[in-house]
Amino acid sequence: FMTTKEMQSRQFTSWHIRLLKFLRKLITDGNVWVLKVSRGKLGNSFLGVPVLLLTTVGRKTGQNRTQPLYYLEDGERVILVASNAGTERDPAWFLYLQANPEVIVSINGCEIQMSGRAASAQEKTELWPRLTALFPKWQMMEDRSKRSFKVVILEHPR
User: Fold this and answer.
1) Half-sphere exposure for 86 (CA within 13 Å, toward CB)
2) What is the pTM (predicted TM-score) of this model?
């Protein structure tokens, strides 16, 4: 039998990755639909963690892409974690944000235009304890992953 620590440190297999991708799409599409239809009144938290809708512009298609994400409010800033459920690649929304940092954030049905950037190593170090207190699984997922998760800071455009 494996200890809990050994189980948590195991890498994802290709089967795990395919299953995660399918489940993530199913949950994502359902959550986006509920948040949009209810104008942010339903689905705005999951497991006690607040959820927002992040709309980015696709790099190749130029089409809007909307993703529900956990977030941390930090004054007027919004902090996100590009975890992609711990898989080996950064999430598509992070790549879109790098190509075009202007995004639309919907929190509780209220849309806000913001600009996003990857946090510096120092900023991540400062924010990470608060982020993992909000959602402890981020630390477990990062430990299992082959990459360091990016932390994204969204701010109001100047």
Assistant:
1) 21
2) 0.77
Find, among 70, 51, 59, the residue nearest to 92 by Cα: 59
The β-bridge partners of 65 are 56
Among left, alpha and beta (phi > 0; psi -120 to 50; other), residue 48 is left
Measured CA to CA, the distance from residue 8 to residue 97 in angstroms comes to 30
Dihedral angle over CA of 87, 93, 98, 103, nearest 10: -150
Read off the pLDDT of residues 60-74 as tens digits, 9 standing for 90 and up: 899 999 988 999 999
